[in-house]
Each structure stands twice: as structure tokens, then as C-alpha cells.
Amino acid sequence: RSRCPEPMAESQKRRRYDRQLRMWGEHGQEALERCKLCLVNGSATGTETLKNLVLPGIGSFTVVDGAVVTARDLGNNFFLDESHIGRPRAECVTAMLQELNEHVRGSYVNDDVTALLESNPFFLDEFTIVAATQLPEPALRRLALACAARSIPLVNLRAYGLAGLVRVAAGEHVVAEGHPDNTPSDLRVCAPFPELLAYAESRFGGADSLSANERKHIPYVVLLMQAVQAYKDGHGGALPSTYREKQAVKALLSAQAEKWFGVLGAEDAINFEEAKAAVNTALAPPSVPGDVRAVLEAAQGHVEAMRPSSEDATSPSSVDANSASNRTFWILAAALQRFVNGEGKGALPLLGTVPDMTADTSSFVQLSGVYRDRAQAEAEAVHAHVQSILTGLGHPASWITLDQTRSFCKNAHTIQWLRYRSFEDEYTPATARVKHIASLMDEGPAASFYLLLRAADAFHSQYNRFPGAMDNDIESDVPLLKQCAHQLLAELRTQASTPLAIRDDLVVEMCRYGAAEIHSVAAIVGGVGSQEIIKLLTSQFVPLNNLYVYNGLDGTSITAEV
To answer: What are the residues facing 63 on neighbouring strands?
Structure first.
């Protein structure tokens, strides 16, 4: 039922996965290749999701599906053809998906997931993550409880007519590399370190004696440092913090440019213009973002929980790869907290990157080296704390390398600790986030589709079919679905005074869908779902927390935490 993949040479891997290696690096690729994914149901949504994970090279997958292929499957699932009709769907899609990447192991189980978990309660133990598709609420809740008991992330995907849904439940998840769109400014202009001060003094301490061309190539970092110092000298040592005070620094820069180049010549001093443009960001004092502070405050508690409580406690060598990854994160976070409270004096380690700026080559290269060397020195200080923590835990010093610490420090501004609400929290009226759901109702039909999907599942539980599944049932099913929706809303209203209402035309639309799984919607849901799975596996980029709803009526979507 599975095919053993051929080993891939390192050069072959680099050629094959070049684009994604540039995105999430070799360590991210290794995390993908350790993945053992369980896909529940080889539906169109399921195969679209799995396709996007097989191509970049996850380690292995298992399809759990008790259905056989029907003619209806051929209309929306590109991984099935006429020769598959009447055969187990799990077997057929597994064979087709494996053809996409011979280095990924694939297997299947011809059984309904609920029956499988009843007959083999330990089935899920071997998996890294579970992706469930097209499951009605009762089956989903049973699967979610099984995953939560094993701390296995669960991603639920649904394509229903022109509505789509992705729901992530990952318990606790850590983000080691956030990959923000904009790198934060970390030039330490207001609190320059000794090496930066020495550089500015040695290269530009006698700027008045430099030629006009040389002055126009002074890096703007140095110009800002000089302007800030001039401001401090005139304000009793106080740093500029308010908008008006920063405008005063800009005025000092303008005055210096006019002194050196005259009124007309100052307009051509690009480095001074760069300095004035950077005032608002570069003059901000070093700070620890709120998300990062939450991680640091929790780090020591997580480290203490790692300490062996008995002689037969789990040793680091026996910890599985995903647990080891989380342990590494929290140990690094605890070391980072010690650094911030100690050597960092309240600041995170220096990023060590310098933006492009007007400067001569020699000055810029030397300035870049000053920042790089300081960043490496601070990373080494963090690593010293890492080694101390490892020793206290009885772990070998080699368990976390200096390169790992450097990478962590480089991304320290973006680390996060996400805590996901469970499906039970979401579906239980007493703990449902009713006010939040109500606030989304004004953003279009997407929030209503979220509630109608739940109402359709209630309809299925009551009538053993979905509303509108047969053409001649559409009109008669509208009042029945409306009744299910009203009952759901009534249960939710008991927990909040906020009014909840669903438009009648959307109820009719839901009945018209007849639970059809349209391929275009399945492709969108599968694309979003696979993207979130990759984020969870690599601990890179910030994953969805926790709901995405797609509205195919007008091509819009919403995200929410339900």
C-alpha cells in the first residue's frame, strides 16, 4: 500500500526545491520532510490540499477514506478518472498523488475515520499533523478530541457550494521566524554601542575638515547620531521622543546641511534627506514587542517543565523531532529573556543589518561590519545563557548550536506564541465567541456562511442528508434549514445580547448548493489550508488563528478567532 521513496542526493534536492529553499531554508525543508500527515477523506478539497504538500516534499501521507469512487467524484476531483469508479477512493487518490513526487511516501486506509478510531484508538499516534476535509460536525468533534489528546495539530477544510472554510486547531504553537513584510529598524542611534561610537569618531569626528563631496557621503546613521547628541546637549541630556522633539532633530539636520553646503547646496545632500526621512523610525528607542514579551515571560516556566521529575524521565535523545523543536524554542527564549534582563539592558539582541544608504564603499562596508560584529557578539552572549540552561537540564551542550542561536536572535523581533481555541470551545454555546461572530456579520455574507455551515451539519444530523442534496428537495428544505439555523442562533443568543440574524436569501442559497463540492472552491480552500499546514510544520510565518471563510458569491473572505 505504500512505495518506498528513493533517496535524493543533496544537489538534486537543491535543484528540485530551489524556490522553496529560498523561502523557508534548509531547516524548514527538513521540517517538511519529517512530516507524517494524515488526510481524512480523499475528496476534491483533500486532494487539492495534499497536492500542494506532496509537491514541496513532505515526508509521508496517509489517506483515510471509506468511500468508493462515484461518477460525481469525476466532476470535481482531478486525481480520479473513469477507471477508478467503484474502487476505494483512498487507494486511487494515493496512487495518483504519489506520481507527483517519487520521494514522498504514501499509504491509505479504506475506512471511515470515526470507525477507524473506535477500532484502533492509537491510529493517530504516529502522525505529525491531521488535515480533515468535508467532515460534518459530529465526526469532526470526535476527531478533534482525539487530536487534542495527542497534541496533534488539526486543520479542518470544507468546500460547500460557493462557501469555503479553513479552521486551525493547534493547541499551542510557536513561531520562530515570522518573516515580516518590513524589517524593523534597529540602528541604535539613540543608544549607540561603543563600537558604533568609535566608528563615527574615527571616520567622521573631524567632518568640518572634509571636502563637500566627502560630507555628502557620510552615512545617515552618523548624521543622526550627531544630531541626537546636539539635541541632548541643548536639552539637559534628554532624548527626543515626541513628534515635536523629532521635528527639532530634523531642523538640526537641515541647519547642519545649510552650514556645510549653503541653502541651495543642501537640497542636493541626499544623505541628509535620508537622515530626515529616517528620524521617526531610527530615533525610536529599542523595545520588546508585546508578542515577544509574552513569549519571554512564559519561557522560564516552559523550561522548568522540562526538568526531569524522575530517573526514568524522558531524555533529550528520545524526544521526537517536533517536541525537540518546541524544547529548542523555549530554551532559546529563556536564554533571550536572561539577555534582555542582563546584557541587553531591556533590549533584544541587535539585528546587525544596515539598510542601503548614500555612502562611499569603504565607509559603508566598515559600518556594516560594525553592526554585524556587534550582532554576533550579542548572539554569543545569548548562546552562553543557552549553554547554562542546557547544563541545568542535563542536556548536552551540542543540543543547540551557535548557528541556531544566531538565527533565533536574528528573528527575535518576530517570535510568537499562539494559543488556539479548541473545537469544543467553539461549538459549546457557553464558550462560543458570540459577540465576535456578530461583529463580523456586517462584513458581508461570509460570517453568515460560517453559521449556515453549522446549521447544515445540524440538518444532516437530524435528517441524515444535507439540505438540497436532491433537486426536488430544495424548496421543501429551505424552511427546515431555516429552522436549524434559528435553533443555532437561539442557543448562541443565550450567551450574548448581541442580535444575530441570517438573511433568508442566504438560506435559500445554501439549499441550492446541495453540499456540492465545486472544484474551484476546493482549489482555493486547499491552497489556503496547505499554506497554513506548512506554516505549522516549519514554525515559520504566522499561521491563521483560527478561522478563514471564503465567500464565492463575490470573491471575498474573512478571518476570525472563533
So the answer is: 39, 108
Question: Residue 512: pLDDT above 50?
Answer: yes
pLDDT mean over 327-352: 97
- Spatial separation of the C-alpha atoms in residues 218 and 358, rounded to whole Å: 7
Contact assessment for residue 420 and residue 175, using Cβ atoms and an 8 Å cutoff: no
pLDDT band (50, 70, 90) for residue 473: confident
Q: Between helices 194-204 and 361-393, what is the axis angle to 10°?
A: 170
Tell me the H-state helices in 37-154. 44-54, 71-74, 89-98, 113-119, 137-149
Record the cell numbers describing residue 236, joined without a space: 539637559
Query: How far is Cα 378 from Cα 309, in angstroms, rounded to an integer?
Result: 33
Task: With residue 281 as reference, give the H or E element that holds it.
Answer: helix 279-282
**How far apart (Å, rounded) are the C-alpha atoms in residues 27 and 20?**
11
Cα(331)–Cα(352) distance, integer angstroms: 22
Rounded to an integer, the average pLDDT of 310-328 is 59
Q: Quote the CA–CA distance of 337 and 382 in Å, as a whole number.
A: 9
Q: Phi first, then psi: what are they for 403, rounded to 5°?
A: -60, -40
Average pLDDT over residues 122-142: 97
- Map grid coordinates 571616520 to a residue: 203
Which residues have a Cβ under 8 Å from the Cβ of 342 and sit 6 or more positions away? Answer: none
Q: Are 399 and 348 in contact (CB under 8 A)?
A: no
Q: pLDDT tens, 2-11?
A: 455 555 667 7
Q: Which residue type, as a one-letter code, is found at position 27?
A: H
pLDDT at 56: 96
Residue-averaged pLDDT of the chain: 93
Q: In angstroms, rounded to a whole number, what is the distance separating the alpha carbons of residues 187 and 93?
A: 53
Which residue has 478567532 as its cell numbers? 561
What radius of gyration, in Å, describes the C-alpha atoms of the chain?
29
Q: Please name the residue that has the C-alpha cell 444530523.
A: 461
Beta strands 129-133 and 36-40, pairing class: parallel
Please say if the pLDDT value at position 378 is more than 50: yes
From the DSSP assignment, how many helices (H) and strands (E) are in the chain? 23, 10
CB count in 10 Å sphere of residue 362 = 10
Q: What is the pLDDT of residue 318?
A: 42
Measured over the CA atoms of residue 474, residue 476, residue 479 and residue 484, the dihedral's sign is negative
State how far the Cα of 164 lies from the Cα of 76, in Å rounded to an integer: 15
Say how many C-beta atoms besides its own lie within 10 A of residue 171's C-beta. Answer: 15
| Strand partners for 36 | 60
* β-bridge mates for residue 38, sequence order: 62, 130
Residue 496 pLDDT class (50, 70, 90 cuts): low
